[in-house]
Amino acid sequence: MGRIRLAVAGMTALVAALAIGAAVRGVAVRAAAAEDAKDEAASRSAFLAAYKVLMSPRCMNCHPAGDAPLQGDDSHIHTQNVQRGLDGKGKFALKCANCHQDANVPGENMPPGNPNWRLPSSAMPLVFQGKSPAELARQLKDPKQNGGKTLEQLLQHVTEDKLVLAGWDPGDGRTKPPLTHEEFAQKMREWIEKGAAIPE
Question: For the whole model, what pTM was predicted?
Fold first, then answer.
C-alpha cells in the first residue's frame, strides 16, 4: 500500500513538474513571439523612414522606371536625351562622364560629380521610381533584383559607397535627402537587423 501511495505521489509530482515546465515554456514562447512582433514593427518603421530617402530626387533620379535618368528636384526626364546604355554609363557619345566629372562642377544647378557617376546597368536596373514601400523592400531583399547583394552587402553599399554618399553632396541649388546620411544608414541597419520586414 505504501508503495502505491509513493508511486501515486511520484506521478502527481511528475505531472505537476511537467505542467510547470509547459507553463514556463509557454511564457517563454509568448515572450519570444512578442519580441519578434516588436522587432518586426520596428523593422517596418525603420524601412518607412529610409523609404523617404530612397524616393527623394537624390536617389530616385538615378533609379528611374525607364532608361532615361531623371534630374532636378522635380525629377524631370534628363535633357539632351541621355540614355542608360548597357553598363549604365550612357549611350553612344552621350556618356555620363562627359558632363559629370570626378567632383561637383561649381555653380548653381551645375552637374554634380563622382568618379563612378552612372545609372545601374540595363541588366539590373534597380528601379525605385513608382515603387510602393513593400515593392521596394522586396526588391532590395532579393539578390536577383538588387545586384546579387546579401543584406549585409546592401547595408555596406548604402553606408560606404561614394556614389550613394554623393546624394548628400548634390551641388549648389539642389535639396538634400530628408535624413542625414548617418540617420539613413542607421534606419537601414535597423530594418535589416530587426528582420528586414516588409511594410504592408
Answer: 0.82
Cell representation of residue 160: 560606404
Residue 15: helix, strand or coil by DSSP? helix
For residues 28 and 36, give the distance between their C-alpha atoms in angstroms, rounded to a whole number.
Answer: 12
Could you state, in order of their start, the residue ranges of all structural domains in the chain?
41-193
The distance of Cα 195 from the centroid of its chain, to the nearest Å, equals: 12
Residue type for position 153: Q
Residue 198 carries which DSSP code?
A: P
pLDDT averages per 10-residue partition of the chain, 200 residues: 62 64 63 71 98 98 97 95 96 95 96 96 96 98 96 97 97 97 98 96
Got the DSSP string for 38-80?
HHHHHHHHHHHHHHHHHTSHHHHTTS-SSSSPEETTTTEEPGG
Torsion region of 113: left, alpha or beta (phi above 0 gives left; psi -120 to 50 gives alpha):
beta
Residue from 126, 164, 151 nearest 43 by CA: 151
